[in-house]
């Protein structure tokens, strides 16, 4: 082992032993969802070489290629600690007239040693820019904001986990002084949450040293029972695309002791509650990692199903089906004034058992019992904002966003 390799192994050991990591071992699953293994990381670096096989220059070449597509646009959300641009690719079909669009944010390569998160994300981009029916459906209905390399400095320096300052920007979101990359991404999220098309799904792409593919599930103790149900549905929809390889939602359950003040997902939950499905996806970080195209297809198909995009969107409101893909709940007017009357109509011959209204924190703020197939209701006098109407059928439910205006 030459001196450079030896130094790298020692640095990785030091990182593993530093107080942040020791402290995090109290709740292992919560603190290190990727299962970082410094020896494994050192071996992988030796095998893949500079930048773990995919560096900043390669990204810039790929960005050039992607922006040839009429559906892609490139921008920077700011600069890293060492002043590298944090490139953001936006994918949507701006010729389609569907409003509102569903914004989906995806960021990858927080941990430089998890290059598989790049391979999956690049496949997501390639497929979204492709010619399939799914790609067209998603481009028409959604806006994808994809940050392929959130930690370019760490990637170029050959670090396994940290940024240029050696800080883990995954768990730095509530530090007294957040790192530059965290500040930039948080500012981006904040800006988008204040638009007519706020982020509704936020995926945080990593890869796991345990050599498994899974989502990091947040327990109701750190979220809410309503949110847990949405999370289960989201993960199920993707797991079902490839059940032999993508673990079920119960594989890694975290936040069992409350909301940790650490992660981007914590930030989304504490600021926007159930309005954003914010989850970490872990691909395989090992020699047998492969089939990134199949993973990307499972993710995109699952997202399409979760959003209920199979049915043509109506002009009245977009429909979010949880397990009743063919049932459309029409709601009008939407937006509706607080205390005002709104009308609900169901497209299928199912009868509604009940309807519940939730605020963005997942708290139930209204209920309407046994409404049948079509009915009018008076809203309670609620503060203006975004809410979710959950319509319960015998074996399924449909969630529809509703905006309540000041009376
Ligand atoms: Zn990671």
What are the salient characteristics of this protein?
407 residues; alpha/beta; Aminopeptidase; Immunoglobulin-like; eight-stranded mixed β-sheet; six-stranded mixed β-sheet; 26% strand; binds zinc ion
| Helix-strand category | alpha/beta
Write out the strand line-up for the largest beta sheet, numbering strands in chain order: 1-2-4-3-5-8-6-7
CATH third-level topology of the largest domain: Aminopeptidase
Question: What ligand species are in this complex?
Answer: zinc ion
Largest sheet: 8 strands, mixed
- CATH architect. name of the largest domain: 3-Layer(aba) Sandwich
Strand content of the residues, in percent?
Answer: 25-35%
* Structural domain tally: 2
Report the average pLDDT across residues. 86
The succession of helices and strands, N to C, reads HHHHHEEEHHEHHEEHEHEHEEEEEEEEE
What is the helix tally?
12
- Identify low-pLDDT runs: 15-30, 311-325
CA-based shape: globular
- By CATH reckoning, the class of the largest domain would read Alpha Beta
What would you say this structure looks like, in words?
The chain is of the alpha/beta class and 407 residues long. The chain folds into two domains: 259 residues, Zn peptidases (Aminopeptidase, 3-Layer(aba) Sandwich), CATH 3.40.630; 86 residues, Immunoglobulin-like (Sandwich), CATH 2.60.40. 31% of the residues lie in helices and 26% in strands. The protein has twelve helices and 17 strands. Helix 1 packs antiparallel against helix 4, helix 6 packs across helix 12 and helix 10 packs across helix 12. The radius of gyration is 22 Å and the shape is globular. About 8% of the residues have low confidence. Bound molecules: zinc ion (ZN).
